[in-house]
């Protein structure tokens, strides 16, 4: 069971379905009327009885969404073309979506944000580890890792056809190899027009965890994005994955909010921390 990715209006893109039990407005088309898009996604959510709508929108459209009952959960300044901010706004259509919020984990996050330290060497020997940009010919290795690491995921990254399509759409993958075997990977979903990219899909094989391979991958991704003229990087890190949030904080990303009960990942609906960095 996977959610659908569809187009609305003249360029808006949504994802929706029962897996995540939500509508996600991934991109608001530059010529689309925000009020018309709001009406369409509200209707879609009601007809399918989804419990949440979440939208990533430019700040100029925020008043339309906020006046329609949406709440701001996170913001990223200078997101589009080093200029306009992005807002993540949400509407909860079922009170159950807000029940059992991970209060303890949010409190732990609050404590973590008080301490901004840097990545320190952990004594790991990286002599047998190489990081490279992956090509579409690597798709089988990519899907094999995602299939082993994630019980569920908001996008069908363990489907070879989907992964191949992401390559065609411009997503770039980087992988860490140990003794010639791919053991960890991550990707960048790039908006060249907006000069921003999402650092996402981090996955490390269980027997390779604890070696800070995600740091090596993130460094490689950042270097590549800078060379391509991308100026804003962001990620949606699982609230339940303290390690990944720590990694981004230590790499000088700024926390800007948490999307509550947002995504079906690792077998259940989880909250996501939004972190960003200007380069």
UniProtKB/TrEMBL annotation:
Domain of life: Bacteria
Recorded coiled-coil stretches: none
Every N-acetyltransferase domain range: 129-266
UniProt GO MF annotations: N-acetyltransferase activity
Name of the protein this chain belongs to: N-acetyltransferase domain-containing protein
Lineage: Bacteria, Pseudomonadati, Bacteroidota, Bacteroidia, Marinilabiliales
